[in-house]
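Narrative of activities, Objective 1.

The group set out to show that a structural description can be obtained from nothing but a protein's sequence at a throughput compatible with the screening campaign. Below is one input-output pair from the validation batch, recorded exactly as produced.
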Amino acid sequence: MTDNQTENYDAILVVGFGGPEKKEDVMPFLENVTRGRNIPRERLEEVAEHYYHYDGVSPINQQVRDLLDVLKPALQEAGVSQPVYWGNRNWHPMLEDTVAQMKKEGVQKVLGLVLAGYSSYSSCRQYREDMYRAGEASGWEASQFDKIRVFFNHPDFVEANADHVKQAAEPFGDEPYHLVFTAHSIPSSMADNCNYELQLTEASRLVAEAVGLGDDDWKLVYQSRSGRPQDPWLDPDICDYLKEYSAGDQKNVVVLPIGFLSDHMEVMFDLDEEAQKVCQEVGLKMQRAATVGLHPKFISMLVELIKERTGQTDLQRAVGQFGPNHDVCPLDCCPAPARRPPAARPQ
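Output recorded for this entry:
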């Protein structure tokens, strides 16, 4: 599936989602996230309360700083000499500001490391558009932005997640457990035009297999749904599924947010708060597995993927039913979902 594109890049650009770091940032941040998506104001206020629960501080920016503190020396040790920059889609450091800095410092060709492991408009194509838009805003006509391939089936990604499942299951001892994988729900109109669901299913299957579970021992569900209630999104929701599952005899559950790379706000609130509360109410014993975070295998994978595109290794590793994903996205890959007009309000 890959076209094995290698280039001489001047810099590595880590592209993140971004998050607020004080209460005053919360609503402007959410407005950035939802711009153009017709999200009702009351829904933004509801989500804002999740952040206020943690004093308005999302851990995601600090998690990226921690990642960079580990990744930069790992790249240097592996012989990757390009400088590493960081810019976010939705909050400071903003991507536009970082790209402007890169231009000022003479960077011409950029390899983007997008902190998302799966293909969809919002987790892949939109980030590419963001990078190009930031370049245009800086008048950087000669710039070139590429990105590393999505890595849902990379063996190191699978191993890092499997390690965290095993650690989470330790309190259960020899007792069996049910493994529930979660990922961010997306609109069905977006999911129908990309491989997001297929890739998540394959990643979940590979991790379940790695920890010795069969097909009946795990389930992929979704969380963090937003948007209008009348619009279909991927389901089942994690909390709905836990309530349904509690009717059976098996009471031990491990929840792994395989769709996320760090334990950020949506993981903390939707799983550690809401899903855990549901489990307590319905009699399930839930252990939440950590995301890949700073796992050594995740770091080694990022280094390897960067070396792939810079031509420093011929390795293009992938496991399971699919090969390594393409390096350069086809023109019709992961198109933007059609935006519906806001629902009419009663007069």
